[in-house]
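Annotated sample (chain length 346).
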Amino acid sequence: MSDINIRKTGRAGRITLTRPKALNALSYDMCLAIEAAVDDWRDDPDVAVIVLDAEGEKAFCAGGDVAQLYQTGKEGDYDFARRFWADEYRLNNKLHSYPKPVISFMQGFTMGGGVGIGCHGSHRVVGESSKVAMPECGIGLVPDVGGTLLLAQAPGRMGEYLGTTGARMGPADVLHAGFADYFIPEDQWPALIAQLEENGDPFILDKAASPPPSGKLAEIQTEVDRLFAGETLSEVTAALSKDESDFAAETLKTLRRGSPLSIACTIHMLGNLRGPGIGMIPALQQEYRFTWRAMENGDFIEGVRAAIIDKDRAPQWQHQGDVPQADVAAMLAPLGDNELKLEENT
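Output written by the structure step:
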């Protein structure tokens, strides 16, 4: 497949995204190809590690190919998107629980679906150009691909801030939020990958890691914890409205651009994922309940239209401002026979 290069090189299973002009956006076929490879390599004694990287300087993977989903949904076909999300989430779960080291090198933009393949492995590397975000609320979706688990595990209420605003994280911020493990200057990556191919030993990353350039999230952590302490969109909005800081004003402005339904559901979903015993599968199942309904009952088609198709940046969301909790509950209710079925350690 011209969009992806999958091969074995030395001790490494190598997966390289090769559509840099499209910012390495993840298509359905690419997802299936990655899953087939990791399945093949699971019990392959020649493969000690899996290395994920991408061509081009601008992006590791700027997200899923939502234009493909939009077209089918616009035509009233919701099954294609539901199948895509189910299969993508199955891949995310496999990467999260993979029995061998999974190493990702994430330059430039890593967003949405890119987070799903790059941020669930055992060794996650960022460099000076890295910009990571979960901007789904801006297109009427919620942070998915296991992103809600990462957000729920971020310090304090940082997950609510990142998940509802889609704020972009630089390398220090990515480490602070727990979306990556190492900062390594990008000019060292080719040599490190060559070593991984030669000896399959991920511990070389520990030696190569260095402190990242300063970020901003650590500095605003206390402010974020205070302003996002609420358990509903209305509580968060009220806290931001009452606060007189520039940060609160700017954050409120950003929140008001996204889908109120998506933002309200995101806050609720992260609250559900805090606590002992919560893991990847419950996170993905909860995300799937939303995405399964996103086209028919949510703002997804309108959000993609406004941001990507017509690019008028003027979405007509279902809700203006507050969202009744009954509407949140309806988007996240169990799906019965359509519930996402995933296996532990698959």
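Annotation: Strands lie at 4-9, 12-17, 49-54, 59-61, 102-106, 109-111, 123-126, 131-133, 182-183.
Annotation: The first strand starts at residue 4 and ends at 9.
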